[in-house]
Amino acid sequence: MLEDNERGVPSDAFRGGRDVYMIYSFEDVAFHWEHVSGRIFRRFKGTGRESETVHSNRLYMDARMGGRLATREEYDNY
Question: Across the strands, what pairs with 31?
Answer without folding.
Answer: 22, 42
